[in-house]
Amino acid sequence: MNELTNICAALFISGASMALLSCAAVTHNGDAQQAAQEISDGARQVPEVPSVGKGDDRPGAPQEATDGSPGPRAMLGPNSNGDTAAGGAPEISARRAPRPRRALRFEEGSGIAGERLLEPMTRRGVHEEAHTLPMPLRVGWHPLHAEISGTVSVGNSSTGYISGQAQLPAFGKHHRIMEEHQGRNTAWGTDELVAFVEMAAAEVAKAIPDSVLMVGNLSVAGGGDMPWSVSHNTGRDVDLCYYLVDEQGRPFQPRTLVMLDASGSGELDGQALRFDAARNWALVKAMVGQQRYPVQYVFVYEPLIKMMLAEARKEGFTKAQEKAIRAILRQPMGAQPHADHMHVRIWCSKEDIAYGCRDMVAGKEVIPRDDPGYVRTVGMLLERLSHSATDSDGLAAAWRTLGLMKASQARELLKSALESPCTEPLCLALMEAAQELSVTLPTTFLAQVVDSSLSYESVKTAMGFLRRRGPAVVKQAIGWLASSKVLQRDMGPFQVDLPVAPQAALLLGWSGSRSAEVKEALLLQLSSETAAMREAALWSLEVLYVGQPLPKERLHEEPGKAVEVWRAWIRENPNPTKNLRQAMKSRGIRIADRKKFDPWELIRAVETDDYVSMEAQRQLATLMDSKRIPELSDKRQSRRYWKGVLGETKTKSRGKKRRR
User: Cα(162)–Cα(153) distance, rounded to whole angstroms?
Assistant: First the structure.
């Protein structure tokens, strides 16, 4: 049986022959029922029915050109005449006429300690903060955006972005974006999602005249994170306000989302409102009962689901049909109950799967390695990498795309590429691909990037990887302390500076080395002429020796005095374990009077100051025989990780005792 199997929920409504079909390609190792079980997180199963493919007859769907040229949604392949591109490198045919380039690639923040200190921002004028309203206009681009067109949902719904973008009109014939949400600038999505919302609203209005669908958040421009949701990153999610009626039973169009109780009642601005079960059920039917834009999930508050299913039974809906639809229509687990809106997610389109769109099933990414479009893209890119005529930009685009697609076939080729010196933009692309494909970057490669690259993003990325190499980076880091190299990043109203020398001082702290050479190098930098260098050296001394004998304010007032204070403190407190014990006690963490730490004591220290958290995580790694590197960018997540590891260890220990 193929790894990818179509799972379809066939729901026949009333006596009509209309079928609600939602088909999904899902990775599994068993039969179709097992895959359906994974979709519903173990809650419900979808009966196995014949698979139904996604149609291309949707309104506005790209069609084959009448003049014989490739259609706008043509997949990867040779030119229309069967030849390859000039120079022998394979060409990727366009899907629509390319949009004007608006170059901007945005990255996830690393959150590494000291980053704000070592990358000072120079304000250039009036600006918008990232989360002020409306959300700023951004444009994300797929690495191959010059060769494909239309929108592409890249990555998964929680960490990805949108390449190109389509905007849902604020006022449509059968929909409105709510007043509050119009001010957010969150009406962006893929071509498929925008058409899906318009189609669903039109179907409800057709079934029940005068129905107007009130719409909330889709995605921010360009996709990526937004403050109202942990998903909605890739333009495949939309929040829909429930259809509501007032006390007289008249349709009501709210200015914002309305929280409803278990009886379906709510209030807005003194106006009593209630859930319109008939219209909301018509909406669910319209969304799930079509195959142009297959629906993965419709998240709804459970009491409201029951009200809609009561409406469905009036139409002759059976228990078997109800069981099938509940694989899609359900209250989310581990999240808010969605009592004020309906959260809908559509599956990755076949076209977008071929360019790196990934569905999430049961909390895990689905890598569609058997999908024909995916296979075709990967094969074409690997062939392109083998052509010497491909320039640096072309190679970089190919490697970025292979990384986005998690193409494991490229790992060995990537390892070989990392053995040679690189130039920009290839250096950054290779590092991005290595991270996505779980390939270890050689320390020599990373050091070469820091030494030779003039790219802000490349050097910052290389430094981030080097922070996890331990004592192996000490020699290079000490050499970089004398570097005068400063890289700059233009961020519109800001200019961000990245000086290499302070980053090298931070590397010494992350290395964990307490050698005399490291100690003397850092003590010397405490009296540096630059504040950034002094603070970086101070941070590294604190995390290495687990102490804070000198406040940061005094460091800048008397730099020379700082060296004397720290030298004396290290001489009097040479044992980091004892220093950690003292630091934990001073923070009210109870510690048993014994030589070894209890893991739970250390776990409580993870969410404290950097220098305490760093050593606590190192001690935990030793106790739990783990190779995990300390993580300071999200200490809460680190604490959850270690609690989980300790729980697993205790479970295994109890299992061994039972067997004895």
Answer: 5
